[in-house]
Amino acid sequence: MRCFLGVDVGSVSTNIVLLDENEEILYKLYLRTMGKPIETIKMGLENLLSDFKENIEIIGVGTTGSGRLLAGAILGADIIKNEITAHAVAAVKEFPDVQTIIEIGGQDSKIIIIRNKVVVDFAMNTVCAAGTGSFLDRQAERLGIPIEKVGELSLMSKKTTRIAGRCAVFAESDMIHKQQMGYKIEDILRGLCQALVRNYLANVAKGKELRAPFVFQGGVAANLGIRRAFEEELGEIVQVPKYYDVMGAIGAALLAKNFIKTNSKRTKFVGFKLVNLKYETEMFECKGCVNRCEIVQIYSGKNIIGRWGDKCGKWSNSLKLERYDIAQEAIL
To answer: Which residues of 138-167 are buried (b: 16+ CB within 10 A; e: fewer)?
Structure first.
């Protein structure tokens, strides 16, 4: 089978998707990055190879996420795109009429405004942890509740308690206080879901024109309580994609397909041999100007296969890696 590979490397998870030439999803994998993106990418490809027994031909590769440059260097990506573009492409494919995309992942949250299938505005929140998946994980662990049950339990609430949601620290201390006062866990959880949605709308979505249809994606979209809270605040139905947790990877694969087909190019994918290769990274400070950029470079053996981090392109462009879309970091 001829397939397109999409890889989304984030701080919390690494997602891998395989699409056939009809854009049907043949395979998806969600792995915890655990601070080891290179090892996680190799593990994902090992799993992919194990499942398909070499009965596939990768004809295009796209990467996205905070680790997209690293993933692109290792894989030999044909196109490297930011998360906004990747998530938007995947959402528009499944919901052509979408106008507002709510995306909440492990460490950050985003809002993407779509008009006529084009991104016209966006915002990201990477400062406060309140509302992200990692914060919900922490609260579930503290309460001794499986994270998968948080949303379900919150929907059992008969009387919501208000939780301070402006800050992760305040939210946690308020939850502890309410527990000590004897509030029911399901009421606290529903209050937490509502607080996190208020935080998102007041910060990430501040000043944005929010229009239906709404699409909610990212790992947190699995939380039924958060979804219900969004619907209550927005007064609209919020749709969740079938593959809500790997939409970035789906978008990367779709972008790879478009790039290969439009440019009639052969993929630069290095092949599954990369699972047996060793990679190392190092960082140095460029002293060429007052910016003092921190340059990251990655080695395969003694060969430098990727560089990034420079604002002027002095180091990244010196490798002349035509397969990378690093210079085109515009949103679209």
So the answer is: ebbeebeeebeebbebbeebeebbebbbee
